[in-house]
Amino acid sequence: MTITVTTAPARISADHPEWLRLKASTTALRSLQIQDGSVPEQTDHAAAAGHVLAIIDALEALAPSFPHDARYLDLLGRDFTRWMEAGFGVPDFLDSLLAFRPQEHRENGLQHVVVFPMYTQNGSSSRLVEAVLIDVIWPEFIAGLEEGQYSNKLFVPIRFLDFTPGYDTNSAVLFPETVAVRETPKFTWGAIFADREAARFRRVLRAAADITALELPAEAAQLLEDQKLTQETFVMWDLIHDRTHMRGDLPFDPFMIKQRMPFFLYSLEELRCDLTAFRESVKIEKDEDADPEARRHAKLVQYAVIFDRIFRFAITGSRVRNYDGLGGQLLFAWLHQHRVLHWTDSRLSIDWDEVAGVVIELGDRIDELYWRSIDRPKTAHWLAAYELIAGTLTPNPASAWAKGPGALPLDGPPRGLTDQVLDDEFPLSMFYEALEKKMRAVIESTAGITGSSDSARPGPAATRMTAG
Fold this sequence. Notes:
Blueprint: H1 17-30, H2 45-62, H3 70-85, H4 94-99, E1 111-118, E2 128-136, H5 140-147, E3 155-163, E4 173-174, E5 190-193, H6 194-212, H7 218-225, H8 227-244, H9 263-286, H10 292-312, H11 323-337, E6 341-344, E7 347-350, H12 352-373, H13 378-390, H14 414-419, H15 430-444
Parallel strand pairs: 3-5
Antiparallel strand pairs: 1-2, 2-3, 4-5, 6-7
Helix pairs in contact: 1-2, 2-3, 6-8, 6-10, 6-15, 8-9, 8-10, 9-10, 9-11, 9-12, 10-11, 12-13
């Protein structure tokens, strides 16, 4: 397929006929694929070919609206054709993936149509063909932060316009490493759906505040009413979080998915990045020379980090090695034990004048752990990290790790230590057990949510937590 752009770009809506044709053909093709992305049944190949040809035709019709993606769309059609002509084996879309470079076009409102055989993180584990229509979120104050102290050339914040079933899930990222390819390339971008993050946050916070009788500060309450404000707040949070994985005193590969380690170390890494975003936002808020919009959003980032961590992260997902859940539990308990968060008379309250210093102190403790661990053996780092968490959270009574080094196989390979970590090494507190029951339906209702006004409305009603 050769694409020639001859007309001026025009915006594509979710009800555009060619997008709907692309979406329908992609959805039909998915039904013929198996987990590795192939179409193994010969009797399905004729139907698969018809769907592929319809996808290519739709892409050709849509291409004039995406001149910035012309080479990608050209190679995408070739990858589809090659896959079809080779008999629909395991797909390889490396050529088109390398040509898709959204980080080079970070312009507010710029659209992309993205089609790849891929799995969706926190969504589908199968590499089925997905199609997603998106636009970029890049307000001026974010551009200013990125051009200044918070450079992150790989970061692309985006918004859903429409998508195929793999994104009708909890997935809020578009990552090149999920695409089916013949060899692993150097990844040069990562995209995050800030509108889904924001809409999910707004629904969960509204319910949690009602359930816990928490009185929100006026600025935080604005997040419940304004989707645009909230998603831009998440863009700022994500910008700083994402770059932190590659910065600091790192005694290990920051992309820890390449290593086999106890899940609580992943908890500390994700929490470290969030607490860095919190600390930097405090600095920006206090900087009188900073852009006024950056300062306004910096305050909101602080609320977002605390509320998303303690209300959603802590009770979302299973209790099997839930590292984000553990990070949320740790932040809540740290705030409570430092007496800036209170659960009294069945009401939650937070001392907002004191909370920033306490949150930053936890971030400093994790940074100190990292700095000291550069001089420690791996197992000593693991033990020190466990001690940091267990100093605030109560371990599972059945834990071997809680008994100390004498109960662990320190003379064997590190895997032996990892295997001793329980799936639920730090169980939910009684507070969280009660909150999870009240919030379960609300959290489940956020699957597939987007930033549209309808989907950001309150989810299922929940009753207030009471003593006893």
